[in-house]
Amino acid sequence: MKSLFAEFKKGIHIENPTFALLLGLCPTLAVSNNIRNGLGMGIAATFVLLGSNIIISSIRKLIPTKIRIPCYIVVIATFVTIVELLLKAYFPVLDRSLGIFVPLIVVNCIILGRAEAFASKNTVTYSALDALGMGIGFMLALLIISSIREFLGSGTLLGFQIIQGFQPAIIMVLAPGALMTLGLLIGFNNWLKRR
Amino acid sequence: MDYGKFMTIAISAIFINNFILTRFLGLCPFIGVSKQTKPALGMGAAVIFVMTLSGFITWIVYKYLLVPFGLEYLRTIAFILVIAVFVQAVEMAMAKLSPALYRAMGIYIPLITTNCAVLGVTVLNVNMFFKKDMSIGFSFIASLLQAFCAGIGFMLAMLLMSGIRERLDLTDVPQSLAGIPIAFIVASLMSMAFLGFSGFKF
Amino acid sequence: MLRFIMVLTAVCVVAALVLGGVNSITKPLIAAQKEKELNQALKDIMPEADRYDRKTFSGGDYYQCYKGKKAIGYTIPAIGEGYSGDIRMLVGIDNKGKITGIEVLSQAETPGLGARCIEIKHRENKPWFLEQFIGKSADSLQLKGIETITGATITSEAIVDGIRKYAVDFLKEIN
């Protein structure tokens, strides 16, 4: 039982996809300008990750090794399109603010990476747990980055003003702020590990 | 034809909305392959080539296959498959026809399939240049131009970054920041410089 | 080789079937969402009207607005060339050519600067910048007398110029 939990836990801290494995950085930076977008992307990516890991691990024995990558891509793209359609149908505002990063979940290296490195070798249960852990790790990373950026860049958290009269630094919600925040956070993570 | 518009598309794709520094597309190769100038150049050239031709193929697929049958919702899956097949074909053709070029660029080609900049530019083309009020000719040329210039912008950022990182190796960076973190901070400063281009138009 | 082709085809066929199914469920929902948003936008910029008729002019689709049987104005599209790309708007004008409301449909202005053109202040429910235009003549709109967005003169100008240009063209064509 312990190993089941370990499978789930590793994605959250030790193998955190963003801070430790440095995967899926493009959406991490692009949609983390406020918490709502960050959470939306985190949930969408976790859904795709979970779906594709389950399907891929359950059909892993039927697929010849040589053509596995194209098969994985089709499975992943299918889930991404489902997410795209659901977002458009139920959350059009979120869909618009995430923009092209919804279809781009297809090329998020976390998902293909987990399919190749984990789901293709493990059972459905383990793969599902792995996907959940990685997804939550990704979501946490997004949450941390987007909270920092939203607070410093717009002076709000989840849209609510926190400190009256605080003049936000707009640069934090723009591109340079994203890169700077991520660089410093990875550095901070390294420093924690070193101690 | 409206040359000013094309000029604006080109400038915008290269500088204002630089794919790496402003749009955050293609960060993985940007951080991964920018340690030295030579590989950065090879990767940049490979990306320009694949991007331009993918822009061309996906435009045709979208216009003459997906739109007539009302299958626009299959866009993502169709584009990624087209790009993956195309990249594979380029790799095989290159290995056969020009082994010298293959040795120089070959290792970067498979990496490009999962480069989100390539899929990104094709999706952006569809979003931007398939509006009701645009003629077929304009939409086609604009898509190709945007794909090509996005590649140029990608290469420009790669080259600048690799030049900086080569020098960075010789400097004394705090231990925790060495390597990737400092690369991001450098990228952040570059992106700040690129902000200066915004608002520039014809 | 044959096995490869069969597996790949099977995967693709299943994927296509699944997506076809999902699409047939979400398609009416997406259309309904778009319809709802358009109606909401029309309602926001021309609150008095109860019926909107779609018609076309050289600049795109416009809606003639009625209150009961009386035609009380139009909503027209307008595009301004902003700082980073087009700002697409829907503008309501009454029979006298005065603006009744503006809705920004899409924009890609800089967050924190130009994007504040749609900023809604605390405890208000309409964007303060756009509210200033209400009651002004659409075809002679000027930036004078309007509080611009700090640090985003180009965005402010783009909105004013876009509305004026489309309003002039539209009114010329209609009359």
Provide structural commentary.
The complex is a heterotrimer of chains A (195), B (202) and C (175). With 195 residues, chain A is mainly alpha-helical. Chain A has 8 helices and 2 strands. Chain A has one domain. Helices cover 67% and strands 2% of the residues of chain A. A two-stranded antiparallel ribbon of chain A has the order 1-2. Chain A starts with a helix and ends with a helix. The mean pLDDT of chain A is 87. The model of chain B has no long low-confidence stretch (mean pLDDT 86). Chain C contains 3 helices and 5 strands; from the N terminus they run αβββββαα. Chain C has helices spanning 2-45, 128-131, 153-174; strands at 51-57, 60-67, 70-82, 85-94, 99-106. A 5-stranded antiparallel β-sheet of chain C has the order 1-2-3-4-5. In chain C, β3 (70-82) and β4 form a beta hairpin. The longest helix of chain C is centred in the N-terminal third of the chain and has 44 residues, at 2-45. Classes of the chains: A mainly alpha (195), B mainly alpha (202), C alpha+beta (175). Chains in contact: A-B, A-C, B-C. Chain A binds chain B through residues 22-23, 25-27, 29-30, 69-70, 73-74, 77-78, 80-81, 84-85, 100, 103-104, 106-109, 112, 171, 174-180, 182-184, 186-188, 190-191, 194, and chain B through 21-28, 31, 73-77, 80-81, 84, 113-116, 119-120, 123-124, 127, 174-177, 180-185, 187-189, 191-192, 194-195.
Characteristics:
heterotrimer; B: 202 residues; mainly alpha; 9 helices; 73% helix; globular; C: 175 residues; alpha+beta; 5-stranded antiparallel beta sheet; 3 helices; 26% strand; extended
